[in-house]
Amino acid sequence: MTTADDRDDEVLEHEVLTEALGALAGPGSRGARFAARFLHKDVREVELRLPLPFEHALALVGALLDREGPELHPRRPEPDPDRRTFRVLTRGGVGGMNPVLVTVRAVRGGSDATEVRLRCAAFEGLFKQRSAQKAVDRLAGLLTA
Fold it and tell me: Which of 3, 101, 131, 136 is the most exposed place for a label (fewest CB within 10 A)?
């Protein structure tokens, strides 16, 4: 079932990844937006249950993502205080030349647990680098270690 959050993620992913490709190509590069229409988007998700209170889980996720790249601020504030969304743009692939958008949604799962949905998206070119899959595997391993 596709939710409004899922549709927002897809639109935002395309916009952010297209802009990041343009930044890699250099100023005045309109070709990135054109090329992005033809690129396949690699998207991977995993759902985790962290055995941590909500506030501690937010601190862990925030510290981990701070090391990954700059946080992208949400378009609108979270309507629910028991939920928080983080987004960062990091790099993957050969030489770190493939932008990867990481979205983490944390939801209070009770007094001693937090449900986390980790989603990574990256464009794939001619050579499949599986940047999103590798980012999900790496970040999920760090969150559950």
Answer: 3
The pTM assigned to this predicted structure is 0.84
Q: In what order do the strands lie in the sheet with 83-92?
A: 40-50, 114-124, 98-108, 83-92
Non-local CB neighbours of 95 within 8 Å, separated by 6+ positions: none
How far apart are the C-alpha atoms of 145 and 143, rounded to whole Å?
Answer: 6
Looking at domain 40-144, which CATH architecture does it have? 2-Layer Sandwich (3.30)
Q: For residues 105-128, give the mean pLDDT.
A: 89
Work out the number of other CB atoms within 10 angstroms of the CB of residue 119.
Answer: 21
User: pLDDT by residue (tens digit) across 129-140?
Assistant: 888 999 999 999
| Residue whose entry in the numeric block shows the structure tokens 């993620």 | 9
Is the pLDDT at 102 greater than 80? The verdict is yes
pLDDT range class, residue 86, cuts 50, 70, 90: very high
